Structures are given as structure tokens and as C-alpha cells.
């Protein structure tokens, strides 16, 4: 039980870490770039730059990171009690 | 009557019906009826798990209300909507393997089961069951009304006929197939949602002459539309960021979502669902809200937000294709309603009837009761939706944020903090709901306190009271054991 819980706890912390990173990226580009006066915006694929980086690149990066942490750090554990040693 | 739109919608309903029927054939052979009917036998694979989470979460507001607001507010509202991408991975990672292991250890079928065994307190059970019943029943009615209005507006059927059509189709497959039917139809509905948004986005961009042209017209109309601050420059960074709680991380506390985190088969399903769920949530939210904003120069002057998506779809697509695309918002509504229906039914059957009325009911009796309660609930909701009482509409205002503030800490800290106890849980739930309702009135009268969404402070308050209650009264370490 303890071993499986340790794995679960570590993965939950990874989830909190990802969400924090996600928030900082989203907020930083949205209000860092988007906070300039509107005349200074540049446009990528026709979209305002702050939006492009915050929402489109941000989404792609989060998808990549979720894939990465699942591939690297997430472990397969049994949910049943068999083979359980305290 | 618009038959070209109506026929694809009807075909979609027939497809959904057959999936429900298929799920019900699996039920008849069932030896663990409760597990099967209310939890799909804990055998969801990664794709279905991801889709049912996204589809349950994505509702009328993601497909009609949200894009409608984006139409008025501009890019700032897409920014706000994109806070929801976090739900795609956060809920499953946080509840994660611990919730899956513990709920199996407890043999829990519902969220209330988990709370009952974790806190060992009838007061916690009753309070959580009653809040689920009251708030989700009203949320269900509101979605039901949304579904009927949508059918009414795109097909030309009368509201009552539309409601009848909608109610019968949902009722039948949920009642006969249970949670498995809900999850499988959610998977199809989720796929329809993704495909529908993709088709519509491409069509809207083409109709507008490309993204640069659309954005230039937006700037020409009102430059604020392309800033993060909204058309009237009144969306503050603090307000938009507080949606990270309401529609982002706080979603962990929604019972209809949390119950899905106990329904999957194994850790591989969870891993796959994390990736699929993130992609699908992001694609749906980004596309739908972009469509809302892009619709503005193409069809200016729509003053009812909910009509933006139906009107722009009928405007930019031939009607047969519009029928297929408009199956997407209908799928979003159905997949939310079906999950709420089975959840409310499980609360009545498992958490109230079997806990307090007749704990020794036979398998056959449980079956009859389960089918009966589900069918009866659905019928009651449909009748209420014919002429919705003000009380229901009123309660629905608190359904989302109020339940989050009530449940997030008893669930999350109950799983991860050994000192969490029933006093903490009780204080947390009561303070969460009460302060949410109070603050709702305060904010509507005086503007948002501290400039953040109503949900923010109740979530903080219920955290403080959870910790205080657990440490100050009957403080004791808790360890998970088989029950």
C-alpha cells in the first residue's frame, strides 16, 4: 500500500507543478504582451501576438508536457489489493 | 420546419439510442448490479474515460453561452475560456491513482460512499447527498431547458415538442443502460463535439475571408476586441485569472467529474486519458470561442448570446451540414444531462435508500428501484422544464461554484492529508456553500469583492475551516484500511 501511495502522491505533485507552470505561461504572455498598447501588437497567423503565445502555443506546450511527464514519470500500478506488501 | 437540419439530428439521436441499448445488454448479465449500473463496472478505457470527462464537463455554456459572450467580449473571453485546458489533466492527476486505489479498497460506488467511509459520519453523508440532490437536480433542469431551446431554435419545432424529443431520447438510454451507456454515448458525443467544432471553425474562417481579414474588421469596429481586457476594457487580470479556480482546478470538487475518476480500469487507461483529455478540452474550448469571436464581423448585431452559434452555423454551412454540426452543442448538453441524471439517481438509490431506508434490499429490488428512480427523476425534470419554477433557476446559479466550494477540500484533503476529519469536512462544506450564496448576493449588489469571481473566497474559506476543524476538534491520524 505505501509504495503505491508514494507513487500516487508524487504524481499528484507533478499535476500541481504542471498547473502552476500552465498558469504562469498563460498569465505571463496574456498580460505581459497583451498589456502593451494595442497599436504595438504584432500578428501571427492573423492573431494578436499575446493571444497566439498565451493560448495557442501555451496549449501545444501543455499537451507536450503532459505527454512527456506521463511517458517519463508516471508508473503503472495495480489498483487491486493483490500483491500488496506493506 | 427545417427538415434538412432536423434529419441529421434525428439520425444522431437514433445512433445514441442504439449505443444505450447495447450498454443495456451488458447489464442483464450483471452480477454486481450497483457497480455496473452506477459505475460501469469500473472498466472504462482511456479514450472513453477522457471523452466522458470532457463531455460531462463541456455543457451548454461551452457551446452556446461561452461563444456568445466571446462574440461580445472579443479575444479576452477566449483567454478566459482557455483556463479550462487545465481540467484535461489536473483532475485525473490530482485524484489520480490514490482515489482509484482507495475507492476500490472502500468498495465505493458513489462519491458519497467515499466520503462516508473516509469520515465515518452520517452528518457528512446527509449533507453531501442533499447538496448533490438540490444543486445538480436544478443544474439538470437548466441544461434540459437549454437542450429544448436549442432544438426549438434550429428546427422550428415548438418548445414542448423539442423538450419531449430531447427528454425521451436521454431518458431511455440512461435508464436502460446506466453509467456504461452514459460513458459510451459521451464518447460518441465527445467525438461529434470535436468534429463539429473543426468543421464550423474552418467554415467561419472561410466565410470571413481568412483570419487576418476578420481580425482587421474587429480592430476597425473596436480595438478593445483584440486586447485581453474585453470590449469595454472591464475584464481585469484578477477577474479572468480567478476563473482558474471556477472552471480550472476547482473542477476537482464537482461530484459528476470526481465520480469518473473512480470508474476507470487501470493505470494505462488513466495515462492515455490524461493526454486525450487535454487535447480534446483544448481543441473544443479554443475552437468554439474563436468561432464566437470570428462570427462578429460576419454576422453583426446578434443580441442574444446563445443564438450566436446556431445562427452562424446556419449562415456559413449548407443546411444538411449545419444539422451535423449543430449535433455538437446538442451532444454537449445531452452528455452533461445524462451524467447528472445517473449521478442524482445513484445518490438517491445508493446513498439514501440503501444507507438509511433499506440496507438489506435484494439484488432484484435494487434493480427495480434503480431503473424506477432514474426514469422517474428524468420525467420529473422534463415536467419541470415545461414551465421551470423560479426556485430551480435560482438554485442553478449556485450549482457549479457552490458544489466546488463544498466538496473540493473534503475530497482532496480527505485523500492526501492524514489529519483531515469529519469536523473539518462538515465545517468546510457548510462554510463553502453558505459563503458562496452570501457572496453571490453581495457581489451582485456591490460588484465583485476584491475583483475576483464569487467562487474564489468561499474556496479559500472552506480550506481554512477544513484545516482548523480537523486540527482543533478530535485531532487524530487517519490511515486507509479495507472496509
Spans of chain B of 5+ residues with little confidence (pLDDT < 50)? none
Cα radius of gyration of chain A in angstroms: 19 Å
Relative strand content of chain B: under 5%
Largest interface: A-B, 48 and 51 residues
The CATH topology label of chain B is Sodium/glucose cotransporter
What's the rounded overall pLDDT mean of chain A? 92
Largest sheet of chain A: 2 strands, antiparallel
> Which spans of chain A have pLDDT < 50 for at least 5 consecutive residues?
none
Largest sheet of chain B at a glance? Answer: none
CATH superfamily of chain B: Sodium/glucose cotransporter
Query: In the CATH hierarchy, what is the architecture of chain B at level 2?
Result: Up-down Bundle
C-alpha-based Rg of chain B, rounded: 22 Å
Question: What oligomerization state is this entry in?
Answer: heterodimer
The level-1 CATH class of chain B: Mainly Alpha
Number of domains of chain B: 1
Number of domains of chain A: 1
Structural class of chain A: mainly alpha
Keywords:
heterodimer; A: elongated; B: 483 residues; mainly alpha; Sodium/glucose cotransporter; 19 helices; 0% strand
What report would you give on this structure?
The complex is a heterodimer of chains A (86) and B (483). Chain A has 86 residues and is mainly α. Chain A has one domain (2-73). Helix content of chain A is 67%, strand content 5%. In chain A, strands 1-2 form a two-stranded antiparallel sheet. The longest helix of chain A has 33 residues, at 2-34. Chain A is elongated and about 60 Å long. Chain A starts with a helix and ends in a 13-residue tail after the last helix. The mean pLDDT of chain A is 92. By secondary structure, chain B is an all-alpha fold. Chain B has one domain: Sodium/glucose cotransporter (Up-down Bundle), CATH 1.20.1730.10. Helix content of chain B is 78%, strand content 0%. Chain B contains 19 helices and no strands. Chain B has helices at residues 3-28, 33-39, 46-57, 60-73, 75-81, 87-106, 111-119, 122-155, 159-207, 211-221, 237-248, 255-258, 267-298, 308-316, 319-357, 363-386, 390-416, 422-446, 456-472. Chain B is globular and about 65 Å long. The model of chain B has no long low-confidence stretch (mean pLDDT 94). At the A-B interface, helix 1, strand 2 and helix 2 of A face helix 5, helix 6, helix 10, helix 11 and helix 13 of B.
Amino acid at each position: 500500500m505505501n509504495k503505491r501511495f508514494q507513487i500516487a502522491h508524487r504524481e499528484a505533485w507533478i499535476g500541481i507543478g504542471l498547473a502552476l507552470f500552465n498558469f504562469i505561461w498563460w498569465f505571463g504572455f496574456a498580460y505581459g504582451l497583451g498589456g502593451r498598447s494595442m497599436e504595438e501588437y504584432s500578428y501571427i497567423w492573423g492573431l494578436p501576438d499575446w493571444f497566439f503565445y498565451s493560448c495557442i502555443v501555451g496549449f501545444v506546450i501543455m499537451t507536450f508536457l503532459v505527454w512527456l511527464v506521463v511517458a517519463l514519470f508516471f508508473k503503472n500500478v495495480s489498483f487491486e489489493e493483490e500483491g500488496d506488501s506493506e | 420546419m427545417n427538415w434538412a437540419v432536423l434529419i441529421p439530428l434525428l439520425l444522431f439521436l437514433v445512433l445514441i439510442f442504439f449505443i444505450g441499448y447495447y450498454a443495456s445488454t451488458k447489464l442483464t448479465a450483471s452480477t454486481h448490479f450497483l457497480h455496473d449500473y452506477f459505475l460501469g463496472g469500473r472498466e472504462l478505457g482511456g479514450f472513453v474515460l477522457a471523452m466522458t470527462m470532457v463531455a460531462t464537463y463541456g455543457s451548454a455554456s461551452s457551446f452556446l453561452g461561452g461563444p456568445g459572450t466571446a462574440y461580445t467580449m472579443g479575444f479576452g473571453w477566449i483567454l478566459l475560456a482557455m483556463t479550462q485546458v487545465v481540467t484535461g489533466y489536473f483532475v485525473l492527476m490530482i485524484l489520480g491513482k490514490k482515489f482509484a486505489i482507495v475507492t476500490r479498497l472502500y468498495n465505493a460506488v458513489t462519491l458519497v460512499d467515499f466520503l462516508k467511509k473516509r469520515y465515518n459520519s452520517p452528518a457528512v453523508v446527509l449533507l453531501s447527498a442533499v447538496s448533490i440532490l438540490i444543486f445538480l437536480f436544478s443544474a439538470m433542469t437548466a441544461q434540459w431547458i437549454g437542450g429544448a431551446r436549442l432544438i426549438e431554435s434550429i428546427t422550428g419545432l415548438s418548445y414542448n415538442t423539442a423538450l419531449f424529443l430531447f427528454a425521451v431520447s436521454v431518458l431511455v438510454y440512461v435508464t436502460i443502460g446506466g453509467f456504461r451507456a452514459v460513458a459510451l454515448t459521451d464518447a460518441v458525443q465527445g467525438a461529434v463535439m470535436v468534429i463539429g467544432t473543426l468543421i464550423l471553425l474552418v467554415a467561419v474562417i472561410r466565410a470571413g475571408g481568412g483570419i487576418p481579414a476578420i481580425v482587421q474588421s474587429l480592430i476597425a469596429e473596436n480595438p478593445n476586441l483584440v486586447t485581453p481586457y474585453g470590449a469595454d476594457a472591464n475584464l481585469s487580470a484578477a477577474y479572468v485569472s480567478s476563473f482558474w479556480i471556477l472552471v480550472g482546478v476547482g473542477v476537482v470538487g464537482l461530484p459528476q467529474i470526481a465520480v469518473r475518476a473512480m470508474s476507470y480500469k487501470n493505470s494505462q487507461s488513466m495515462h492515455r486519458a490524461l493526454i486525450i483529455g487535454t487535447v480534446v478540452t483544448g481543441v473544443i474550448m479554443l475552437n468554439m470561442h474563436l468561432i464566437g469571436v470570428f462570427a462578429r464581423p460576419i454576422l453583426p448585431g446578434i443580441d442574444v448570446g446563445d443564438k450566436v452559434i446556431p445562427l452562424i452555423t446556419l449562415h456559413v454551412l449548407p443546411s444538411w451540414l449545419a444539422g451535423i454540426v449543430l449535433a455538437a452543442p446538442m451532444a454537449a448538453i445531452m452528455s452533461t444531462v445524462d451524467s447528472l441524471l445517473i449521478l442524482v439517481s445513484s445518490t438517491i438509490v445508493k446513498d439514501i435508500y440503501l444507507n438509511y431506508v433499506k440496507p438489506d434490499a435484494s439484488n432484484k429490488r435494487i434493480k427495480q428501484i434503480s431503473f424506477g428512480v432514474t426514469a422517474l427523476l428524468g420525467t420529473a425534470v422534463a415536467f419541470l422544464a415545461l414551465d421551470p419554477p423560479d426556485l430551480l433557476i435560482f438554485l442553478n446559479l449556485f450549482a457549479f461554484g457552490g458544489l466546488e466550494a463544498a466538496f473540493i477540500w473534503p475530497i482532496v484533503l480527505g485523500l492526501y492529508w492524514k489529519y483531515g476529519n469529519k469536523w473539518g469536512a462538515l465545517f468546510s462544506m457548510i462554510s463553502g456553500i453558505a459563503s458562496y450564496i452570501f457572496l453571490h448576493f453581495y457581489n451582485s449588489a456591490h460588484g465583485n469583492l476584491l475583483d475576483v469571481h464569487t467562487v474564489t473566497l468561499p474556496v479559500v474559506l472552506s480550506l481554512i475551516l477544513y484545516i482548523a476543524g480537523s486540527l482543533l476538534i478530535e485531532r487524530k491520524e487517519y490511515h486507509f484500511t479495507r472496509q
